Amino acid sequence: MPAKRPHVVIIGGGFGGLEAAKSLAKADVDITLIDKTNHHLFQPLLYQVATAGLAAPAIAAPTRSLFRHQANLTTLLAEVLDIQPSDKKVFLSDDTTVVFDHLIVAAGATHSYFGHDEWAAFAPGLKTLEDAFEIRRRVLFAFESAEKEPDPEKRQHWLTLCVIGAGPTGVEMAGAFAEIARQTLVGEFRRINPHDARILLIEGGPRVLQAMPESLSQKALEQLEKLGVEVRLNAIVTGIDATGLEVRGPAPAGVLGTVDYRIASQCVVWAAGVAASPLGGLLAQHTDCQTDRAGRFMVSPDLSVPGFPAISVIGDLALAMSHAPGKSPSAVPGVSPGAKQMGRWAAHNILSRIEGKPTRAFRYADYGNLATIGHNAAVVDLSTPLGPLRFSGRWAWWFWLLAHIYFLIGFRNRLVVLMDWASAYFSFSRNARVVAGTLHKAVPPVGES
Question: How much is the pTM?
Answer without folding.
Answer: 0.91
